[in-house]
Design brief:
Layout lengths: L15 H9 L5 H5 L5 E4 L15 E15 L3 E10 L9 E6 L2 H6 L5 E6 L1 E4 L2 E5 L2 E5 L5 H4 L3 E4 L8 H14 L18 H9 L4 H32 L10 H9 L6 H15 L5 E6 L5 H14 L3 E5 L3 H15 L6 E4 L4 E3 L12 E2 L10 E2 L5 H4 L17 E6 L8 H14 L4 E8 L3 E8 L15 H20 L10 E5 L3 H17 L12 E3 H16 L15 E4 L2 H4 L7 E6 L7 H8 L6 E6 L5 H7 L4 E5 L9 E7 L3 H13 L3 E5 L10 H16 L4 E4 L5 H13 L4 E4 L12 E6 L7 H8 L9 E7 L4 H12 L3 H12 L1 H4 L2 H4 L13 H17 L9 H16 L3
Parallel strand pairs: 4-7, 10-23, 10-24, 11-21, 11-22, 12-21, 22-23, 25-30, 26-28, 26-29, 27-28, 29-30
Antiparallel strand pairs: 1-9, 2-3, 2-5, 3-4, 5-8, 6-7, 12-13, 14-15, 16-18, 16-19, 17-18, 17-20
Helix pairs in contact: 6-7, 7-28, 7-29, 8-10, 9-10, 13-14, 19-28, 24-25
This protein binds adenosine-5'-diphosphate and magnesium ion.
Magnesium ion binds next to α10.
């Protein structure tokens, strides 16, 4: 008897090539197959007559091929045409022409005399009605015709080597053989109607459109319910965990508020009191703070941190970028040092303390080491703190040199699983060449694959003029053969160990590099190979390496002066980038973590933070509002606070889209504003801060603007300018010495100059809506009316629809909703970020309502029975475990 977990290969009637093709679609079991849901359905019970006019909606037609032809044009290009005639032609019938360009396989599949079903948009081409590139299916008159024809027929997401017809045939047969009792219902009866087995049957081969819709609703609700159960379990789990109260009396906070040059808005006050309640409670806070750009989230974060600091705990403030971290650091110092609060900055590239170290309590710290085989955690006596807390400049390497950095993945042959010892061997062989033939930035040896981030070095030799680099393939080859030999030696085996390596193109930008770097370091945790609070010893960074060396040296020297570590003046607030997460030494006394700009931060990372015992309070802040229906999915495990009010002293922002040809008029407008003393930002669209051309293009851009704005003064700002110089440029702009700042999107975060009331964004079409909204948030910060001009040369319909959104509203939520409307959810909900299983049938946008229903069903189960102890809730436990598995497997 087959069940959901039966492997398709065990069915014994599916030919091997088909099994392989199915595997490419990640289909291995009957359940995978039967939950490979149709992408759409075609009504093949009855076909409409051939159209005589164009239609915008695609339609499904059936006819006989009466002629085929192949034409060449422009050298090697080909058009294949098939002319169809209706099955029951009448006097008015016109033939239909189907055309395919450069798809040589189509001509092999279609021949005169066949009947075919086509699906596409009819268009008038000259006098003929044509469908270009229709989806099609040849109808063969075999005994299986009833599966494919004369019914509402499912159309599947397909793959190479597996036609619709074959796939549909396989699904039909498995469905037929599958016992009804094999399906367990997922969602409670209060949420869904009918049985899961019926819904599965009906989604594939529905008897009517209504049946299809009902089946879909059932399945979407079930899928959403499973997802919400996972979210709810995370939520209840974290609130059930031991936490501590981290709240001081509030005297420090009061003092801070008294010194502020403005009154808090009502919304800020409300949110601070919500946070205060959480911080004072003895369960860990898990709160999301949403508030539009400029709504004043930083003040709220500071308030939260002060409460915690006053109670004697540390607070960490994490920002997604260097610039933002530096800005927070400046603001905090300005506001908090007068109150006697000690603040330190920790980023990949810079560290600075306003008080003396130590930052980390190394007395009881766990240090993960790449150097020994077992999952190690060792306790070290007090070490030289300044050294140990040192942050390597290379922690996140910067893309400065002419040669390239590669992200390489090497898989083992046949998914062979490397023993811990073998993994160590691999890591050691990687280390062997580090700083000899290449520089390695990060490496992670997973059980069945290896990730590396390396930059090949020049080969030795003095011929400076004619340097050649180690070739990547050479390098990987040596690593592979060296480690394979060693592993076989240890394990007393022979045979090959590695597959051919894959490499992503070379790393193209800092951002790219950072992403890869973190991806590699996170991999064991994100993929579930290691538990969140567990060490995974086969991860390597340059910091680990130098730390090991130091520890080695120290061990040899024996410790000096352990006892005289100063405990006074430790920083109470540590500002940093995500690097804080990967610091393998823990904080001594962390009470609160604030994460700014959460949308760049994944659930897995958050989990890594909160896995500490006792759990710190966590406040995540996002300025990029996401649509409400997504909030309950992505942030479903958090309590939500909202700042829904802007500080009162804000001038209005007018946004206008202008064609590039109108630049002259725009310039004269800008001049009138300059004369009133206002200032301007010009944003030009070098989106990638580190593209090679960047510096040159920026300089050219700058020259151009200097001429245009003459005699007003401008200065240039971009990511490659050294930090000290950047500060000077900003200083002059802030003081009003310069009238205009020509900048890349580094301005997106971190700049606050109330007198700058004008922003001009060039090639606005190249930015996303969310980013434009963020950029625009730099103006409108003072009392004067502000103007944002979006220059665009694109005539495309989508572009004008997109930019019109910004003309219409300055409300971030509306922008987010519209953005979603225009783009679809794919981009908003990066699957890896959401830490949730991929959806198979539900659509977050279209089915928002079903999501709400599923959510309240899941929540009410947990409210009644938070630990799922009741007998009737037992089945949900398994569901959650399964979901958990899936959510990590699709990330790795
Ligand atoms: P965001 O929410 O985008 O992080 P910020 O916290 O950077 O916004 O605040 C933007 C600016 O508004 C800052 O200069 C901040 O000092 C100021 N600000 C914050 N709250 C108020 C308020 N209640 N009244 C006036 N200005 C405020
Ligand atoms: Mg902010």
């Amino acid at each position: 008897m087959i069940s959901v977990s039966t492997k398709l290969e065990d069915l014994s009637w599916i030919p091997r090539p088909r099994l392989l093709a199915l595997r490419r679609l990640d289909i291995e079991t009957t359940e995978d197959l039967l939950t490979h849901f149709p992408r759409r359905h075609e009504d093949r019970t009855e076909f409409p007559q051939f159209p005589r006019e164009e239609t915008d909606a695609p339609i499904c037609l059936c006819g006989e091929v009466i002629k085929t032809s192949l034409r060449r044009f422009g050298g090697w290009k080909k058009i294949f045409e098939a002319t169809l005639e209706e099955s029951q032609p009448n006097a008015l019938s016109e033939p239909l022409v189907c055309r395919w360009f450069n798809l040589h396989y189509v001509q092999k599949m279609i021949a005169t005399g066949q009947r075919i079903v086509v699906f596409g948009r009819p268009r008038l081409r000259g006098k003929r009605i044509c469908i270009d590139h229709p989806e099609f299916e040849v109808i063969e008159n075999d005994e299986e015709i009833s599966i494919h024809f004369r019914r509402i027929t499912p159309i599947y997401p397909a793959t190479e080597g597996l036609s619709q017809r074959v796939l549909r045939g396989i699904i039909y047969r498995v469905l037929h053989e599958f016992p009804d009792a094999g399906w367990q219902s997922i969602a409670p009866n209060s949420l869904v109607h009918g049985e899961r087995s019926d819904a599965i049957r009906a989604i594939h081969f529905p008897g009517s459109w209504e049946a299809r819709d009902a089946a879909r609703e059932h399945l979407v609700l079930s899928e959403f319910f499973a997802m919400q159960m996972l979210i709810a379990s995370r939520r209840f789990e974290s609130s059930a965990r031991a936490g501590q109260a981290h709240c001081g009396s509030g005297a420090l906070l009061d003092e801070f508020l008294k010194g502020l040059p403005f009154e808090l808005t009502a919304a800020q006050r409300k949110v601070i009191s919500e946070i205060r309640r959480d911080v004072a409670a003895n369960y860990p806070m898990n709160r999301l703070l949403q508030g539009d750009v400029g709504s004043g989230k930083t003040v709220v974060a500071i308030a939260a941190m002060l409460l915690v600091v006053e109670a004697g705990y540390e607070a960490a403030f994490m920002a997604p970028t260097q610039i933002l971290a530096e800005q927070h650091y400046e603001v905090l110092r300005r506001w908090l040092e007068p109150l006697g609060v000690h603040i330190a900055l920790r980023t990949a590239a810079r560290q600075e303390e306003s008080g003396p170290l130590p930052l980390f309590d190394l007395g009881s710290a766990r240090v993960s080491r790449a150097g020994d085989g077992a999952a190690s955690s060792r306790t070290f006596p007090e070490v030289d703190v300044a050294l140990a807390a040192r942050y390597s400049r290379r922690r996140v390497p910067h893309f400065k040199k002419a040669w390239a950095i590669y992200a390489v993945t090497i898989a083992t042959k046949k998914d062979r699983c490397l023993s811990p010892k073998a993994r160590m061997t691999v890591l050691n062989s990687l280390r062997h060449f580090h700083n000899k033939r290449y520089e390695m930035f990060a490496a992670c040896v997973m059980p069945d694959h290896v990730h590396l981030l390396i930059q090949p070095w020049p080969k030795g030799g003095d011929d400076k003029a004619n340097t050649s680099f180690w070739r990547l393939s050479e390098l990987v080859h040596s690593i592979k053969s060296f480690s394979a030999h060693e592993i076989n030696e240890i394990e007393n085996k022979s045979g090959s160990i590695w597959e051919k390596e894959r490499f992503d193109r070379y790393v193209r930008s800092d951002r790219d590099l950072q992403e890869k770097f973190y991806y590699i370091l996170r991999n064991p945790w994100d993929s579930g190979v290691a538990k969140q609070n567990e060490d995974y010893p086969w991860v390597w960074t340059q910091d680990d390496e130098s730390r090991n060396e130091r520890l080695f040296r120290r061990d040899a020297e024996t410790s000096l002066g352990d006892a005289c570590a100063t405990q006074t003046n430790e920083p109470q607030i540590i500002v940093g980038t995500h690097a804080l997460l990967y610091e393998s030494v823990s904080f001594s006394n962390l009470g609160l973590t604030v994460i700014d700009e959460q949308h760049k931060f994944g659930v897995a990372q958050r989990a890594r933070l909160t896995a500490r015992e006792p759990a710190p309070d966590v406040l995540v802040m996002t300025a990029t509002p996401i649509p409400r229906t997504l909030t309950m999915t992505i942030y479903g495990d958090l309590d939500v606070s909202k700042i829904d009010e802007m500080p009162r002293n804000r001038g209005k922002i007018i946004t206008a889209v202008r064609d590039t040809s109108k630049l002259g008029e725009v310039l004269s407008f800008l001049r009138t504003q300059f004369e009133k003393g206002r200032q301007l930002y010009v944003i030009y669209p070098l989106i990638d801060e580190s593209e090679k051309l960047d510096v040159k293009a920026a300089a050219a851009e700058y020259e151009l603007w200097r001429e245009r704005l003459h005699p007003f003064r401008c200065e240039l700002l971009h990511g490659r300018i050294p930090a000290s110089e950047k500060q000077q440029v900003m200083g002059r702009f802030r003081r009003g010495d310069t009238n205009a700042l020509i900048s890349t999107t580094v301005l997106e975060v971190g700049v606050d100059v109330p007198n700058a009331t004008m922003m001009l964004i060039e090639n606005a079409e190249r930015f996303g809506l969310a980013q434009l909204h963020q950029l625009r948030g730099r103006i409108g910060r003072g009392e004067h009316k502000s103007t944002c001009i979006l220059l665009s040369s694109s005539q495309a319909k989508e572009t004008s629809a997109k930019l019109a959104v910004l003309e219409r509203t300055t409300n971030g939520f509306e922008v987010a909703e519209a953005d979603w409307e225009l783009r679809g959810p794919g981009d908003v909900l990066g699957t890896a970020q959401s830490g949730l299983p991929a959806l198979k049938i539900g659509d977050l946008k279209r089915d928002a309502d079903l999501m709400r229903r599923a959510r309240s069903a899941a929540m009410s189960i947990f409210e009644m029975d938070p630990r799922l102890d009741l007998a009737e809730n037992q089945r949900f436990r398994r569901l959650i475990v399964e979901q958990q598995k899936q959510s990590f497997s699709h990330v790795s």
